[in-house]
Design brief:
This protein has about 70 residues and is α+β, with helices and mostly antiparallel strands. The radius of gyration is 13 Å and the shape is elongated. Strands 1-3-2 form a three-stranded antiparallel beta sheet, covered by helices on one side. The protein has helices at about 1-15, 30-40; strands at about 20-25, 45-55, 55-65.
């Protein structure tokens, strides 16, 4: 609900600003957020290996992009 609406508002505002590309880095363990960005049509552009460090444990993150229609 709220996450979906928030990202859609950000996308709309960025179009009005004349931006053409957005990016998001999401921890692989955050499956709900990954599902949201997939639902919104963002493109998975790659995996960032050992990108996030929590304590002594590194974990991967996913890099998502969205090209906006200006």
């Amino acid at each position: 609900g709220y996450g979906y609406k928030a990202v859609k508002l950000i996308e709309t505002y960025c179009v009005e600003l004349g931006l053409y590309q957005l990016a998001a880095i999401i921890p692989v363990k955050n499956v709900a957020c990954i599902a949201l960005f997939d639902k919104l049509g963002w493109t998975l552009s790659g995996t960032l290996k050992d990108w996030i460090l929590r304590g002594d444990t590194p974990s991967d993150a996913r890099f998502y992009q969205k090209l906006l229609e200006t």
